[in-house]
Amino acid sequence: MLAVRELTKRYGGTTAVDALTFDVRPGQVTGFLGPNGAGKSTTIRLLLGLDRPTSGRALVNGRRYTDLPRPEREVGALLDGGAAHPGRSARAHLLALARATGLPRRRVDEVLGTVGLTDVAGRRVGGFSLGMRQRLGIAAALLGDPGCLVFDEPVNGLDIDGVRWVRGLMRDLADEGRTVFVSSHLMTEMQQVADRLVVVGGGRLVTEAPMAELIEAWSHARTVVRTPDPGILADRLRGRGAHGRRVDVEQGRDGGLRVQGAGPEEVGDAAHRAGVRVHALYREEASLERAYLELTEGTVRHAASGSGAPRGADAALARDGGDGDARRDRGRRAERDDGRRADPDGGTGGTTGRDGHGQDHDAVEEDR
Ligand SMILES: Nc1ncnc2c1ncn2[C@@H]1O[C@H](COP(=O)(O)OP(=O)(O)OP(=O)(O)O)[C@@H](O)[C@H]1O
């Protein structure tokens, strides 16, 4: 079990993680979803004791990582599949890790078998493909047979076979009763594998719910109508659904109206009665992907060079009048979203050079 409580991490003027609270439970794959810069890697680093929180707690089985007597037996992590020394063989790499953490040698052959690297275990890691390195990273994470597993963007750069294999493995690990926490910025990927989602944006929690619930809540069709008189039509449509249904209308940034609760026929008839011209009218199927993009809109951290972060959120707030907690949060996040680290890769500074257990405790320092 992993737990994050009011977790906050600031790097100078940037709040990477902002009062985040959520649980990751055993027996499930929990997806950790958010756009680039949302704070996923920072949260994971805090969980693994690779960085210190500014405030709040990140707990593994109820304790801080640094307080765990045998952390490698409780949590394993894949943070950087390419972290093994290129001159070493896969087996030598895992043997070194096993020795360093006092794990039995037999675990090395077991995990090599689990990840399908037995036949190439004697080959130098330098000659490994990305997929093989990723498997090796996962083998390292599994070495201590931990109950919790954390995978940071595990399918990045993998071909379809590799992606399927990672998905299957995560499922198996969860079915064995382990806690599986996997980060991604791709909703489509999460939809394939996660039982539950924790969505973050701008360092804050956007939503946390079982996948089935999110699909149910977000997967409904809406009607799009383009007209030169959107205000008149919106007024006619709002709150006047057939059969007592509630109709919600919001205006997109492109000027078109998005109508929830009324189909194209109903909208077309309403336009006709109002004497409003219609330039386009169609049904748009909602998807979880689009819902995710809307929820996290405006939370993406932009380059510091004056690109100005909050355009998307401002537009979204303007069009929906600021109703809804997630959208209010989105606006607040956007207001705060005024800085980022100087590192041009915008990525996970200080996460390299570690093994699969995230043992390099002093690898990261803040405010550089
Ligand atoms: N060591 C650091 N020093 C300064 N700022 C940092 C550091 N690490 C992360 N940040 C900043 O904190 C914010 C969150 O970054 P983080 O890497 O946690 O996001 P992420 O969700 O993992 O995104 P990505 O998918 O791009 O890695 C970003 O604005 C990032 O630039």
UniProtKB/TrEMBL annotation:
The keyword Zinc does not apply. CDD domains: ABC_BcrA_bacitracin_resist. It comes from Nocardiopsis suaedae. The lineage of its organism: Bacteria, Bacillati, Actinomycetota, Actinomycetes, Streptosporangiales. Residues 303-368 are annotated as: Disordered. Pfam families: ABC_tran. Residues 2-227 form the ABC transporter domain. InterPro entries: AAA+_ATPase (IPR003593), ABC_transporter-like_ATP-bd (IPR003439), ABC_transporter-like_CS (IPR017871), P-loop_NTPase (IPR027417). PANTHER family: ABC TRANSPORTER, ATP-BINDING PROTEIN (PTHR43335:SF4). This is ABC transporter ATP-binding protein. It comes from the Bacteria. Keywords: ATP-binding, Nucleotide-binding, Transport. GO terms for molecular function: ATP binding. Residues 320-344 have a biased composition (Basic and acidic residues). Belongs to the ABC transporter superfamily. Residues 308-319 have a biased composition (Low complexity).
